[in-house]
Task: structure prediction
Amino acid sequence: MPLNPWNTLFSFLTIILPLLNPFVAFAVNPQGEALLSWKQSLNGPTEALSNWNPTDETPCGWFGITCNINKEVVELELRYLSLYGTVPTNLSSLVSLTKVVLSSTNLTGSIPREIAILHELNYLDLSDNALTGEIPSEICNLFKLQEIHLISNQLEGSIPVQIGNLTSLKWVTLYYNQLSGEIPNTIGNLKNLQVIRVGWNKNLGGIIPREIGNCTELTMLGLTETSVSGFLPLSLGFLKKLETIYISTTLLSGQIPPEIGDCIALRNISLSKNSLTGSIPKSLGNLKNLQKLFLWDNSLVGTIPSELGNCKKLTVLDVSENSLTGNIPQSFGNLSALQELHLQRNQISDKIPAQLENCKELTCIDLGNNSIAGTIPSEIGNLTELQLLFLYKNKLVGPIPSSISKCQNVKILDLASNGLTGNIPPRIFQLKKLKIIQLFSNNLSGEIPENIGNCSSLFWFEVRDNKLTGPIPREIGNLENLDILDLSLNRISGIVPAEILGCRNLTYLSLNSNLITGNFPGKLSCLVLLQFVDFSDNFIEGTWPLHVLPRHIAFFSISRNNLSGEIPSSICNLYFVNYLEFSHNHFSMIPPCLGNMSDLINLELQNNNLHGTIPKFVECSNLKSLKLAGNQLEGSLPRSLVNCKKLEILDVANNKVNGTFPHWLVNLPELRVLLL
Ligand SMILES: *[C@@H]1O[C@H](CO)[C@@H](O)[C@H](O)[C@H]1NC(C)=O
Ligand SMILES: *[C@@H]1O[C@H](CO)[C@@H](O)[C@H](O)[C@H]1NC(C)=O
Ligand SMILES: *[C@@H]1O[C@H](CO)[C@@H](O)[C@H](O)[C@H]1NC(C)=O
Ligand SMILES: *[C@@H]1O[C@H](CO)[C@@H](O)[C@H](O)[C@H]1NC(C)=O
Ligand SMILES: *[C@@H]1O[C@H](CO)[C@@H](O)[C@H](O)[C@H]1NC(C)=O
Ligand SMILES: *[C@@H]1O[C@H](CO)[C@@H](O)[C@H](O)[C@H]1NC(C)=O
Ligand SMILES: *[C@@H]1O[C@H](CO)[C@@H](O)[C@H](O)[C@H]1NC(C)=O
Ligand SMILES: *[C@@H]1O[C@H](CO)[C@@H](O)[C@H](O)[C@H]1NC(C)=O
Ligand SMILES: *[C@@H]1O[C@H](CO)[C@@H](O)[C@H](O)[C@H]1NC(C)=O
Ligand SMILES: *[C@@H]1O[C@H](CO)[C@@H](O)[C@H](O)[C@H]1NC(C)=O
Ligand SMILES: *[C@@H]1O[C@H](CO)[C@@H](O)[C@H](O)[C@H]1NC(C)=O
Ligand SMILES: *[C@@H]1O[C@H](CO)[C@@H](O)[C@H](O)[C@H]1NC(C)=O
Result:
């Protein structure tokens, strides 16, 4: 096809001319001009707007623009662009706009009052920008407005009282701003309002106006993280379409009005972290659609109403951290959709109802820190979805039901601080997902089952303060993921098996106050992540092996054993150690380098057989407690101790220390205890 050179030149010019001087070649109509001059004002990259072409007749084909049949711009819709400009102010040509969306577009500045000119506007979304200033009251002249979204900006000032004039309004979302003032009672005029979300405006206060009861179309009321105070209005009961109430972390007080039970459409209620008092209204049992009920961290008293068992769709119930008493209603066995039951930190008593076994969807049972008595029902083993079981700090007695081994999905089993007796059932260690087992402070007896080695996910095993006997099973060495092992305060005997070196991830190892014998296990230095090691109060004997501890240890105690010989100077390579305790053994020599361990906070060497002089303390700026009593140390107290500016306790009693009274100790401002 032959080319017409004039055509080619013409299209070349139309492209190049606007680039040279965009104000010269506008062929576009005034609406396009207004849009282009706004585009000119933007400071961000505008590739997204590259088809905003001044030579077009109308802007109707431009990115983000929609026109009506008369080629008037009715929608301006731009999202997720880095425009770096302001909301357009010169809107006089764009009065045909019905919808403006400029969200996530890095806009700054304020919402221009000129917006009041857009009389046809029914949808405004300026969310997720950095807009400042107040919401202009002029916005309330836009009587056709149905939706206003100003989420995530830095808007200040109050919600304009004239908002009550916007009788077409259906959605108002203003959360994540810095609005203050009160919720105007004129919202009672908004008969079409469906959603109002103004949460995360820390300074928005006042009461919730009772006029809200006239917003009968309301489905969602969101006021979380505001400073609204006073009582929940009884008029909420008029809201038959209300599905969600989110008013947590505010200053609400008073009782939960029983009228809330009239809001039959309610699905989610969150009133947690307030100062609500009184009891949980029985009328909540009327809410057949209720799925989530969060009332935690209030000051609620009384019993949990058994009527809640009627809320058949309930999936999450959290009334933790209140002062609730009485029992867990048996009717909860009717909650067949229940996934999470959180009752911790109340004063709930009586037994765990066996009926809970009907709640087959349960993934989390948290009843910790109550006064629940009786035994753990073996029916709990029927809850095959269960992942988290918290029963700590109650008054439970009897055995740990071995049926728990049927809960194949359990990850955390926390039965600590009860009065449980009997053995640790070996079968629980077959649970392949089990990560945390907390059984401390019970009355468990018998041996630690060797099956523990099968529990390959085990990360934290704490059985401190029980009556366990027998050896530490060698199989424990199979637990490559084990991080925390606390067997202290039991009657465990035998040696520490060398297999423990298989627990490569161990950071915390506490075996204190048992009947452990044999030599100190060599090669603990292989466990490079170890930070805390407590072997105190056992029957470990022999001399102290060289190079036994990993470099990053922070706490080490071997006090109250039968070790003898020298403390090797290699101990001084533990640069990061804060607590070093060798007391009540038969050690004979103190390495002079101990005075150079700058991270030491606590050094206990008392009641040994240490000879020689007290080392010079050169680097001891963190040392708070130095106990050397009950040894054979001689010579004078080294004056270098004045370097230990944080020293609070200095005990050198029962040695052969002589010399004049160390008056220079007055230079240690923190010193509280001095025994010479
Ligand atoms: C506003 O835009 C119109 C064209 O759309 C223009 O004529 C007018 O000068 C502009 N006004 C200001 C103040 O920029
Ligand atoms: C621009 O907006 C995006 C999305 O909202 C945001 O992640 C980014 O931090 C903003 N950039 C600046 C400089 O504000
Ligand atoms: C708008 O609301 C204010 C205050 O609520 C009221 O005084 C005023 O009359 C209303 N204006 C119109 C036009 O309805
Ligand atoms: C609700 O509206 C009715 C009229 O529709 C009015 O009589 C009543 O006073 C209003 N109530 C509240 C609490 O605003
Ligand atoms: C209310 O709960 C339902 C079901 O749990 C959930 O799907 C919905 O998103 C919640 N509503 C709101 C507004 O968050
Ligand atoms: C709900 O639980 C109670 C107590 O366990 C029981 O008596 C009642 O029959 C149950 N109701 C339904 C509808 O399942
Ligand atoms: C138990 O609850 C009390 C007060 O409710 C609280 O002080 C304590 O820290 C809680 N204990 C545990 C282990 O959660
Ligand atoms: C529930 O557990 C009990 C006791 O462990 C058992 O006897 C019963 O067969 C179990 N029921 C179901 C349905 O698994
Ligand atoms: C354990 O048993 C002893 C003796 O039977 C009892 O005195 C003690 O209170 C029990 N401890 C716990 C935590 O129940
Ligand atoms: C569990 O551990 C025991 C003892 O270590 C072993 O005999 C048994 O085969 C293991 N069972 C499973 C299922 O791994
Ligand atoms: C040990 O810990 C590391 C990091 O915490 C983790 O990635 C790893 O899976 C753990 N288990 C083993 C066997 O190394
Ligand atoms: C302190 O004791 C050492 C050795 O036991 C001795 O050499 C020295 O003379 C004594 N000093 C004083 C002042 O008694």
